[in-house]
Fold this protein.
Amino acid sequence: MATTVTGTKPLIKTSFGGGAGRRGPNGNGLPKRNGDHAASRLQSSANRYRIGMWVALASILMMFTALTSAYIVRAGSSSDWQTLAMPRVLWLSTALILISSGTLEFGRRNLKAAYLNSHKTWLMAAMAIGFAFLASQLFAWRQLAQQGIYVSSNPHSSFFYLLTATHGVHLVGGLLALLFMFLRARPAEANALAVAKRQAAVDAVTIYWHFLAILWIYLFVLLFFWHS
Amino acid sequence: MSGETHETHGAVHRHEPPTSFIRKYIFSLDHKVIGIQYIILALTAVLVGMTMSVLMRMNLSWPGTNWPILGTLFPGGAPGGMMTPEFYLSLVTMHGTIMVFFVLTTAPQGGFGNYFLPIQIGAEDMAFPVLNMLSFWVTLVGFIVILAAIFFSGAESTIGPIGGWTGYAPLSALGQIAGPGQGMGLNLWIISIAIFCVGSLLGALNFITTLLNMRAPGMSLMRMPLTCWAWFTTAVLALLSFPVLLGGGVLLLLDRTAGTSFFIPGGLYVSGVLSGTSPNFPIHTGGSPILWQHLFWFFGHPEVYIAILPGMGATSHILSTFARKPVFGYRAMVFAIFAIGLLGFFVWGHHMFISGMSPYSAMTFSILTLSIGVPSAVKTFNWLGTLWGARIRFATPMLFAIGFVSLFVAGGITGLVLGQSSLDLPMHDTYFVTAHFHLVMGVASIFGMFAATYFWFPKMFGRMMNERMGQIHFWVTFIGVYCIFVPMHTMGIVGMPRRFAQFTEYEFLAKLHPLVVFVSIAAILTVIAQIIFYFNLIWSLFKGKKAGANPWEATTLEWITDSPPPHDNFAGVIPTVYRGSYEFAVPGAPNDYLMQTEPDPGEEGVRVTEGAGNGHNGHRH
């Protein structure tokens, strides 16, 4: 069995070189010395979903930042930019995504309060309204196509289709996550770890969903209320 | 510190490894297996990339020669065995793409980072094992797609798309009309890179979460090995730069396939056809080719650091271990890593000095670029400070680590030349730039990975690599790469342009031809020397001397566990960390070094006199 060399003599100098002085164990910053080790392990194990989600959001935000800078450069660098007339149905989309964001928030809080049935109901509502949002976006596409405006028609339409499609793809990912949460929601989880993980996962998906709502509003403003 | 803490840590929660072959070795969730998969991918990709570089050198130094075997293998690209210029250009493109993405990004981060980051912070696995597995398989699909790009261009007299690894628009945005190497192969090239972006993002997400969330008790940020700092910073760079490339790639693909004009300006006249006058060439107006350059290089410059930062981390780690001294200025090293990463986001413009940018922007980018010299110099001086006065153990990992420092300095110093826009203007399209980035980003990173391989092989496979073969490999490679890239600087100063298939038409370059031949011979010998490395890997896997848990007498957490480590790294015990990573030459310590898990006598007097390591601090007996 593998062992390592460990000293048994008293050491004269204890902290040397690349360390941070004489600090006790602190791990990932969570309390470790109160004897409640199991609880802190549990918390940190569940926390990774929230951390992971924030990290993922940074990355998604970066992509939309890149597309925004492309949008601004493209709009300002040439004279072929023609602003589209806004499809009115986008107001409906905006309302829908805000409502579904709210419903999901209710679902999250219900889970926290351990009301499993209403949690599932709210989850279902958020999903349904999410689908309605997608349908509304598709309807906007149809309206534009009927006017003969396609992705290659002019730079603004290119960006409109691109940005709504990219947002839609992310939203489909969110819907799949919601579906997964819905199917996995079952009563009386045996151990505390599973409960904490479930809550963290629902928190993470909710954060993501709110992010998509805010992102949509941002894109809506950028596409139709921002002028170069 | 209380005793109960140890009691709870001593509780054993073993995670049994999966038993089926497929779950254990193919679709494995174990970060160690995934790390090795990444390394195998890189070892495969580098063979392809290296072969391409040899073919390019052959064409440059012996232009017009018939290579019958080439004629047989690529009847389109080398009819009768003589390479066409298009064939050469597609070699340039594919060599760059494969090396940058599938070698320099996969091995240092996906490979060694995956294997050792969780162990070095005392975690059982990555935070999201399934995402980790996906990140590898997605990356592999990206590699298969880039290989497909070679075959889809087979009929076109090239062996892949033409566009350089930077894929500059509008050439890359036009499609088949723009000539050979612009058809389906280039679409696949973009798709491959997009897939690669997704794989890297999954990896980066995992690295960051793991490091923030899963450090063992006592593993404060400032106690982490510098390797972990490097992998973490690399992951942050990847997380913020790959999405930009992904966005740009989507725009480029739309220009090529959907008729949009993000990057294609109006009124282009290509291959005898005016934009909009032929169904093969739809109308385009108003796009900005420079926009592509901005998006690409906003990713491209951080990518350079994605390649080299893990090598810097490994070098710091190995220098300290084999010099038997703490890293000189640990904190400064951490801040330097971060400063390099941060500044890396504000200097992309220096790749675009010749794009006609305003001199004021150029000056801004110039000043920011030169300021990267400061953290780079901090690192270099600290490496030298670590070596100063040390009784160095010249094992192979140490040789490669010192080689890394040498190459980083030699390659970095010309960065100070190229970082000034006025000097870059005449130099940019010459071999000077080729020599600069190959030395500093290519070869130095690879040396970091060689050092890492020789250093960690015993931990990964339980056997030492052969030392004699390692030493020969080092010296031939070290001398070889200098013989290749130092003359290239001279060629660049004389004015030899990059990317040209041959130079027979240029009288002023005729005198350089012997030097070109010399570089090619050096390159071919260096490539042959890599056979020693591959042979050593395979030989040592079966015949190498058995390694104990800690053959190098190193201090970090990977060395307290078995070689190779068990499925859950520490056999169910969570190690507790009491000190920094580089406590070598400790006065009074019995073995001149202290493991990170060794308690301090002041705080842990009872423990120490009882006999340290009775299971409480994570050691197994």
Chain A has a mean pLDDT of 83. The CA atoms of residues 196 and 219 of chain A lie 34 Å apart. The two ends of chain A are 70 Å apart (CA to CA).
